[in-house]
Amino acid sequence: MNSRLQGLGPTATQQVMIAAQALDAGRADEADRQLERVLTAYPNHPEVLRMKAGILSLRGQHHDAVRLMQHALVQRPQDALYHNTLGSLLGTAGDYEGAIRALRRTCELDPKLAMAWYNLGVMLTKSVRNEEATEALQRAVTLAPDHIGARALLADLLRTRGQVEAAAAEYRRLLSVRPTFGLAWWGLADLRTQRFDANDIAQMQAALKRPDANENDRIAIGFALAKAFDDEGSYAQSLQALTTANATAQRYQAWDAKRFSVGVKSVADAFVPPPAGSPAPLGSEVIFIVSLPRSGSTLVEQILASHSQVEGAGELPDLPQVLAEETQRLGGKPIPQWAREATPADWQRLGQRYLERTARWRSERPVFTDKLPNNWIYLGAIRAMLPGARIVVVRRDPLETCFSCYRQPLDASSGYSRSFEALASFWHDFDQNVSRLATLHPGHVREHSYEAMVADPEPHIRQLLAFCGLPFEEACVNFHENQRTVRSPSATQVRQPMRKDTARSQRYGALLNPLRAALGLPAYSE
Fold first, then answer.
1. Is the pTM of this model over 0.90?
2. For residue 182, what are the CA distances in angstroms to 143, 186, 240?
């Protein structure tokens, strides 16, 4: 650290070090206050730029954060830590491929930097490259056996493979070392195979008060504690724990609902009327599954992936990254602008690029699923690029969907899940967009009801398979017997038979009236 501070005066050095500590703790405002005067005096110092980039990232200003970090890296191209920071910022911005490249460069420059191997494992996991992720995380643990973040993610990968007991044991071992480790508490809660007991609740409540618990720990513990209270029927306490955890997370996950709505409508409008798309009938190999989180999309994918012709690929980042590549190629021109100017040849090129990026998912089976929830924003682009693709829109009761999102510590890109008002706005954006696109593309977009399928599974599974051009197979009804890797919060649930008693909002009664009001639903009454 000291060598990176060369060129700064004593006061500036101290302020940068304090800013770094605040940044590590997630306190963006405090870090910014410390850095403000330093940035004025040393506007091009690489370490000052690195700190400022981290602050911008915490505030959701990802493009500016990456730009600043690239500027800093020009001055220190052989500094492994700088490549590591760039990788983390790119990952937070959703550019997983760019992040992986930066982090691999970090590991080349400093193969003994456990943090870099861990960050690489995180990004490979987000890219659904689980075997490579496991190797990277194991390297991190070999270099730093007490790296609990890497060990927690390895435990999470055990869960995705259905090794629930092994995952639970590892989470418990991590908590014996660090009782405030929020990821381990949430990992246990997310297994959904066992309930927390009174001793667990007491330990979580104590951990929330400990000074060595950082903000991320408190957020994760808050969600786990809410799950514990919910399991024992203490719904008011559960909702209070959720309110506190979400309010804390909201400080670090900026969300502008009005700006998002305008952006979504702008993208949708660019594809009305539908443009002349790819002249080649590309895309018959892919089934897109889109939805809000917690709507049953993982269940739909598990059903389809139980078919002998279908590979369940999970939440692939490829579609938005192909669109982002085109935006970058055109000098930053946003999608609504270039989409109106794109030729059929352009759409064919983009469709082929998507299929090239996803080729590995067709190595064993001819069809694969792409289950990235927010691809609903790009339905028009999918139809233009890949006219042969099937699109399944999974719908669930809006109250159940939004409340389930509120109960889940979704990633940094899901700031809408932190308040009832933002959730309702997000749901309405989804509802309006998919309804409009489904009307424009009948026969290519199927709106699939989660509740209807749960109530009467086999007929709806048969209809789903028919829409996807697949013959019926009994294995799709017995989807819970499929032992494939599932990386989503529903990984444990989809290995169990379908249950009909999934509605949760009724248990909370009038406590959820503020969410009902935001959604425009009538208040709860006995």
1. no
2. 23, 6, 18
